[in-house]
Amino acid sequence: MTVEAELRVPLATARLVRFNLTKLAPWRLRIIDDRLAACRAAPTLTELAGLCRLSVRQLTRGFRASRGCSIGEYVARSQLDHAKQLLATEESIKSIAYSMGFTSPSNFSTAFRRATGQTPRQFRQSELRTGHLCATQRRA
What we know:
Elements: H1 3-19, H2 26-38, H3 45-52, H4 56-67, H5 71-87, H6 93-99, H7 105-116, H8 120-129
Helix pairs in contact: 3-4, 6-7
């Protein structure tokens, strides 16, 4: 193999590695999950990128390669799951809405209905009927 050919091989390999979508390290994924669990309000991309010590672009590409969805989709799903858990408690829908960062209970109700097909109240009542909630957990 000539010197010129030997130089081309590492360069071609470097190009493949550079454009290969690399997954995020497990510790970075844990940081994102911990942030989503710790605070009820949704984080910004800039905040998550700062926590992971990456640029927003690196974070979004790496996250999609790791989890198979966008960060926005993942955060929305996480927020929805959290809202469902809170609706299983005695906490009022109004306080749940404000604690999750919504500007009004109406905005929370609309977002919840778009995601689930039910209002928060309907969800709470259907969960009560199916036995997933105790009658004492529900606030009248």
